[in-house]
Automatic annotation (TrEMBL):
Residues 9-117 form the SnoaL-like domain. This is Nuclear transport factor 2 family protein. It comes from Altericroceibacterium spongiae. InterPro entries: NTF2-like_dom_sf (IPR032710), SnoaL-like (IPR037401). The lineage of its organism: Bacteria, Pseudomonadati, Pseudomonadota, Alphaproteobacteria, Sphingomonadales. It comes from the Bacteria.
Amino acid sequence: MKNFAAKLQAAYEAWGESGGRTPDRFMALVTPEIELHSVVDTSLPHVSTAGPYYGKAGIFHYFAKMAEKWEMIEMHTRNIIVGQSSVVWYGHSSWRNLQTLRRYESPKIQIWNVEKDRGLASSVFMMLDTYSFADAMGMLPSPENS
């Protein structure tokens, strides 16, 4: 599990350095049957990046949608917690929506459930500030219109 955590840390570092444009290290850490779920799936189901996503093709599609809609401003890891069958990434990210130009800033938690025998993640669950996300998408009234 510690080996997976080290690879995950490297994947987040590479992704941050690329401005959220190169998810290849994440792709190397997942099973072909990977499932990606997020709080956005149920709280904002009509948003283009809402999932869930299934399989490596689905995960790649998620990253492509993010690159199409968002510009990463910064991302950093605060902690990685290793459990018996999961690795939890806790960090912070800032993005700019490419249509509204509004900034989205949020703490993030991602839970990676890892199959010990394969050493790969079979599911990921993401938690983030959906209010800030919706505001950056232009889904909330702007303060000047209130």
